[in-house]
Structures are given as structure tokens and as C-alpha cells.
Amino acid sequence: QLQASGGGLVQAGGSLRLSCEASGRTFSSYVMGWFRQAPGKEREFVAAISVSGINKYYADSVKGRFTISRDNAKNTVYLQLNSLKPEDTAVYYCAAAPRAHLGYTGTIDIDYQGKYDSWGQGTLVTVSS
């Protein structure tokens, strides 16, 4: 089970930190990802992090502004959102993928939603202009 939190209303240029706590699983065995769905649009990849936390991947639209991290001791993955823009407004979902789903590197197709078998309930981020 994944529980996301930290969303809210923020002005353009502001920051937020999203958290996603996992329970009922061996967290350190799962690749963790963040996806988002804006109104009227399909859900899209935002960021992902390998089981060790060493390898991180970002959508081009958020690269340099968002940072994903994880604390395996706390079973939690974070997404730091900086320099927010109105187009970042969306419901943000955390998701977990068993490492075995992503090939021998544990990172193959890490941005593909189909690799993730567990999803949080989503947290809304609204950025005003």
C-alpha cells in the first residue's frame, strides 16, 4: 500500500515536497516512480529512482527542477518540486515496481507505467500564476 501526501496550492516559482510511504512490502526491493495526470490529459511519467537510490530518471519537462529521493529505512520516497509552473498542476501519483520487472539492470523501461504494479491514491498539486 502506498500513501502519498504533500500536495497543495502554491504560486508559480514556489516549492513543494511530496512524500510517499509504503507499507506491507519490502520497500528496498522496489523501484519507485512518480507520475502525474493533469486535467484532461493522460497520466505521464515524472521521475523514478532505482532500488539503491543511485540511479534517478526524470521527464525532460521537470529535469533540473524536480528531485526524487528515497529513504529505505523509512519506506518513503520523496519528490522535491522547485520552480513550479502552472503547467505542473496535476494529481501526482507514486508507484512501485518490483525490481525484477525492469530487467537485469533494474531500470529498463523505468518510465513505462505498465512496469508498476502498485499505485498510491494521488496528491493534488495546484500551481497558480
Write a concise keyword list for the protein shown above:
0% helix; globular; 129 residues; 47% strand; single chain; mainly beta; 4-stranded antiparallel beta sheet; 11 strands
In DSSP terms (H or I, runs of 4 or more residues), the helix count works out at 0
Q: Report the end-to-end length measured between terminal Cα atoms.
A: 34 Å
Q: Count all strands and give the number.
A: 11
Instruction: Assign the structural class, choosing from mainly alpha, mainly beta, alpha/beta, alpha+beta, or little secondary structure.
Output: mainly beta
Q: Helix amount, in percent? A: under 10%
Gross geometry: globular
Beta-strand content bin: over 45%
Instruction: Catalogue the unreliable spans.
Output: none
Largest sheet, in brief, is: 7 strands, mixed
- The Cα radius of gyration reads 14 Å
- Topology pattern, helix = H, strand = E: EEEEEEEEEEE
Mean pLDDT: 95
Structural description of this entry:
The chain is mainly beta and 129 residues long. It is 0% helix and 47% strand. It has no helices and 11 strands. Strands 2, 4, 5, 6, 9, 10 and 11 form a 7-stranded mixed β-sheet that branches. Strands 1-3-8-7 form a 4-stranded antiparallel β-sheet, with no helix packed on it. The chain is globular, with a radius of gyration of 14 Å. The mean pLDDT is 95.
